[in-house]
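<goal> How does this chain fold?
<sample>
Here is the protein in question

***
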Amino acid sequence: MQLGRDFARALAQITKERGLSQEVIASSLEAALISAYKKFQGGNQDVEVFIDTENGDISICEVKQIVDVVTSPDVQISLEDAQSQGFVDVAEGDYIRIERDPENFGRIAAQTARQVIIQRLKDAERQIIFEEFSDRVGDLVTGVVFKSENDQVLIRLNDRTEAILPREERIVSEKYIPGERMKLYLLDVRQTTRGPRIVVSRTHPGLLRKLLELEVPEIREGVIDIKNIVREAGARAKIAVQTLDVNVDPVGACVGNNGARIKSISKELCGEKVDVIVWSSDPLQYVRNALSPAKIVKIEPILEQEKAVTVYARPDQLSLAIGKAGQNVRLAARLTGWKIDINALEPERMPTLHDIFQDIIEEEGSK
């Protein structure tokens, strides 16, 4: 039976263009044809299929054992019948291969070949996509919003690859408009029965880290080290940085001239405010820095609690230290890993004449 030279040429072209092995396609096609043949014949035959990828020829054989008494005609044959079909030099117990070319099976074979090749192409593309992106987990990727409806947001990463942006990985205040291009953090890649499942994020701290590496050469080159990042995505973030180069101001380098670098990052993150602070090995100093931009007067460790401090700020700095809805102190606590309790510290003042006279009156009255 022939699928023809057109099939052979098409197979060769597919293997060249898609990087698929002819052996892989041929073995898959052989298995599919065995199944199709058994279904076509309506039996439980022992079938072997051989495909010549050079000219498209297909041979189908039923394998039968020669027995004295035939009890299962699908897989057994008598010695007399075997000899009548041209198998002369055989004996009981031997296996023979009887070539078959059933009428009208050519159409089924061609259709099966088409289905197998299409499926193999899908499987190969899925594997290519999986291998391409599984090695990039934790990287920055750029995508275009492809679909945003019924609580589903899909991002197109390239012509053949889509990613999922789950609800918990979205910035609450951000709108996802089809056709809009944005940067994302590649969170996870998993192989499923329906192909690779790629998950991206707009809220992960890693996205801010990658944007900083992109925007700040000193970070990219290792001159400045990011020690920690915490985010309340779309609202505010805090970054602790360090450098061993005395000639580099780590905060200034991250912020840029007139705040250009940090403004660019903030714009990419839907207006998220980004505080850059200097990391310190002294935990009390680290907490003080983390509460920036508020000015802290005094910090005292709470001895009966582990990793807890009481922070004192002047009344005019108290709201700044706490932040809107407690955001500043909450992020500072997450950044440093310390529990922070903030109190107002009333400013000391010089005694007035009224105070002096009041003290004299009290002293005279006590005599």
Summary: The longest strand covers residues 181-192. Residues 67 and 118 are 42 Å apart (CA to CA).
